[in-house]
Amino acid sequence: MNTELGGKVAIVTGGLHGIGKAAALALAAEGAEVAVFDLAPQESGEVRELRQQSAARGAEMTYRTVDVTRWDEVAPAVRAAGERCGRIDVLVNNAGKGREPTALEDLAEAEWDALLDLNLKAAYFCSRAVIRFMQQQRSGRIVNISSIAGRGMGERAHLAYASAKAGIIGFTRQLASEAGPYGINVNAVAPGAIMSGRIVQRWQERTPDERRRMVDPIPLKRIGTPEDIAGVVVFLCSPAASYVTGATIDVNGGRYYG
Ligand SMILES: NC(=O)c1ccc[n+]([C@@H]2O[C@H](COP(=O)([O-])OP(=O)(O)OC[C@H]3O[C@@H](n4cnc5c(N)ncnc54)[C@H](O)[C@@H]3O)[C@@H](O)[C@H]2O)c1
């Protein structure tokens, strides 16, 4: 597949670990100039490692410490990336995190707000900041990372996380409608269980028998990898997906309820 990503400018949020890192490296490997926004300080080992891994693929990556839940950090960081490169072609709204479920009667407002801020409002902030660049160019791709938790129903998902991830699907569809006339495609990916973030920790704590029970309901009989998601992100940013917008693609090994 010719992705035509050479020379394109991409921002990936939460690109220091897991799915975001795999997406950032995959876009960079296709020739995109990638800016990663994440929480760690510029001098941290994680940032050094990301730079080394991208250099090994012949790509250069820029990194900025940005808390995507804060408009006063997102707006200047996007402006700086856009002004430095003269354009922004791709935004991957990936930063996000769930947590162990809390029953509704114990779910405090602060916990609800924190999960909604990170898993839904941050996508609004970042999209709002990039949209004027994409509108001026009359082209762009926005890919939002939702979750199986926003698609199905499961006892392990947090109520606020599931609400935010379902919200991402509505946000994707509505923004696709608004941005389509400018040549901007907006899509979402809904991963199932992927070996990153909390899933790694859960996997490590399980006995072989419990691990089998985690894998058993997945028709493809394995937990996904961050690269399984990154491949679909690259596809959504490529000409092969030029008539795809407003869609949510399930990437879950065939398990639709988490
Ligand atoms: N791993 C899974 O099984 C799974 C399943 C469905 C959906 N997802 C979604 O995929 C996305 C990536 O998840 P992951 O498993 O790779 O997680 P991860 O924890 O490995 O990586 C998340 C990254 O986001 C960054 N981040 C967190 N808060 C941030 C903030 N306020 N500002 C900037 N960066 C921030 C973290 O530092 C980290 O680098 C999330 O949106 C998650 O909800 C993951």
Give an overview in words:
The protein has a single domain, classed as NAD(P)-binding Rossmann-like Domain (Rossmann fold, 3-Layer(aba) Sandwich), CATH 3.40.50. Helix content is about 45%, strand content about 15%. It is built from 8 helices and 7 strands, in the order βαβαβαβαβαβαααβ. It has a 7-stranded parallel sheet, with helices on both faces. The longest helix has 29 residues. It is globular, with a radius of gyration of 18 Å. The mean pLDDT is about 95. The protein binds nicotinamide-adenine-dinucleotide. The site of nicotinamide-adenine-dinucleotide has 29 residues, from α1, β2 and α6.
What are the key terms here?
258 residues; alpha/beta; Rossmann fold; seven-stranded parallel β-sheet; 15% strand; binds nicotinamide-adenine-dinucleotide
CATH superfamily label: NAD(P)-binding Rossmann-like Domain
- The portion of residues assigned to helices is 40-55%
The second-level CATH architecture is 3-Layer(aba) Sandwich
CATH class: Alpha Beta
Largest sheet: 7 strands, parallel
Query: What small molecules accompany the polymer chains?
Result: nicotinamide-adenine-dinucleotide
Q: What is the overall number of helices?
A: 8
| Annotated CATH topology | Rossmann fold
The whole-number mean of residue pLDDT values reads 97
N-end to C-end Cα span? 31 Å
Please give the radius of gyration in angstroms.
Answer: 18 Å
Number of domains: 1
The side-by-side strand order for the widest beta sheet comes to: 3-2-1-4-5-6-7
Q: Please state the structural category.
A: alpha/beta
Overall geometry comes to: globular
Question: Tally of extended strands?
Answer: 7
Low-confidence stretches: none
